């Protein structure tokens, strides 16, 4: 156990090797794995060193409270992010918000801030959806947006059942970790180059584009790759490949207001010399409006069905998750952001802040400049000076919230 709290630089250095692949330089911090468990243990250690009250629910969502007792019923303020990563992801997506939140508590204490409202530093599990396929799973459970009975049967790629890793309790929504939370502010590394273009180390999110994930199941007829004539095939790979190209074409026609990506594919029987019997692929689609998103997915589905009719295959499109448009609460950051001239920009990426906002908790986000503009990749980056500027910005926003009205 840490004898005293570590500063931002020391905390960041301690996290740097955890879950990092020597082969790729990327991070593998999937939920309910050894790497993610090590990170959560580190978080509890740092919270304890600061004298924070640590609470954890049945799925592993954790909040460390400053200025609260276990029986405290006052209106609360929450900050934080997540510690899990996509497969071979970057170092900053998620952990930067957690480390910065702890450092912001230290900075506020140095400034003499005494919270009239408890401030929590939260860590939500499975934000990326990289193991069980549902993004922001932890925050969705914490807010009651999804019920444990609806997700406990989810299985990862290895067949491991979520319910065998967590028990789902105690409580969710108003009865759980988020009881009394009246405001949430999340700091995150920017996933783009808008702040680079504007020459600003810190920015404010105006909202989140609507986005979702759809599973395409394409079935055909398995056969021999050498002996089956081309005209005799019912090849689902052709249907999938044409659909992937169509998704790219349709999103580009709508640019800059649409994104469409096939990033995950499973093939059966997955043999080099065999025509597949089935291809399952996942479409990630995002647009600037819910209407545009619905039109994009409908157009991709139509192209898939047209190609399936040509190929003699069958295609089924199943929505797996859908997040509507989010508009963040400007009053949480405007008193600080306005005088400092922080740029305001939308984000196309999903975040726990969007889930809490949709649940009725006023929420806001701060971004720290990413010089590469790359995310979900080992190339994701943030300069130390910008990270420290982010800590200061977060403390500037949280200070008035914990000593005054949270709304």
UniProtKB/TrEMBL annotation:
Gene3D superfamilies: 3.30.70.360, Zn peptidases (3.40.630.10). Keywords: Hydrolase. Signal peptide: none annotated. It holds the Pfam family Peptidase_M20. Belongs to the peptidase M20 family. This is Allantoate amidohydrolase. It comes from Nocardioides oceani.
């Amino acid at each position: 156990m840490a004898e005293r709290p570590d500063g931002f630089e020391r905390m960041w250095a301690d996290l740097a090797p955890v879950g990092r692949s020597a082969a790729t330089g990327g991070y593998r911090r999937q939920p309910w794995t050894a790497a993610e468990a090590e990170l959560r243990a580190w978080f509890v250690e740092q919270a304890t060193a600061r004298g924070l009250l640590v609470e954890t629910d049945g799925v592993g969502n954790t909040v460390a409270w400053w200025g609260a007792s276990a029986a405290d019923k006052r209106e609360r303020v929450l900050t934080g992010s997540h510690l899990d990563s996509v497969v071979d992801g970057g170092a900053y997506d998620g952990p930067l918000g957690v480390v910065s939140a702890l450092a912001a508590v230290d900075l506020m204490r140095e400034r003499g801030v005494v919270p009239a409202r408890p401030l929590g530093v939260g860590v939500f599990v499975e934000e990326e959806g990289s193991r069980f396929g549902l993004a922001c799973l932890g925050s969705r459970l914490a807010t009651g947006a999804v019920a444990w009975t609806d997700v406990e049967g989810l299985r990862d790629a290895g067949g491991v059942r979520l319910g065998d890793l967590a028990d789902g309790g105690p409580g969710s929504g108003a009865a759980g970790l988020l009881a009394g939370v009246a405001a949430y502010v999340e700091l995150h590394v920017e996933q783009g180059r808008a702040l680079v273009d504007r020459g600003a180390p810190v920015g404010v999110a105006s909202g989140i584009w609507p986005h979702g994930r759809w599973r395409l199941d394409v079935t055909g007829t398995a056969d021999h790759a050498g002996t089956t004539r081309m005209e005799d095939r019912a090849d689902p790979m052709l249907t999938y490949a044409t659909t992937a190209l169509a998704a790219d074409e349709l999103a580009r026609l709508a640019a800059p207001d649409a994104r469409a990506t096939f990033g995950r594919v499973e093939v059966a029987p997955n043999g080099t010399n065999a025509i597949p019997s089935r291809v399952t692929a996942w479409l990630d689609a995002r647009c600037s409006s819910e209407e545009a998103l619905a039109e994009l997915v409908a157009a991709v589905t139509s192209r898939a069905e047209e190609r399936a009719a040509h190929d003699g295959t069958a295609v089924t499109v199943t929505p797996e998750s859908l997040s509507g448009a989010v508009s963040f609460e400007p009053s949480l950051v405007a008193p600080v952001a306005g005088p400092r001239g922080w740029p305001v920009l939308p984000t196309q990426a999903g975040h726990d802040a969007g889930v809490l906002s949709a649940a009725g908790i006023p929420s806001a986000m701060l971004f720290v400049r990413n010089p590469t503009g790359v995310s979900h990749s080992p190339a994701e980056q943030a300069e130390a000076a910008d990270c420290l500027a982010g800590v200061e910005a977060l403390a500037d926003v949280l200070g008035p919230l914990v000593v005054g009205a949270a709304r």
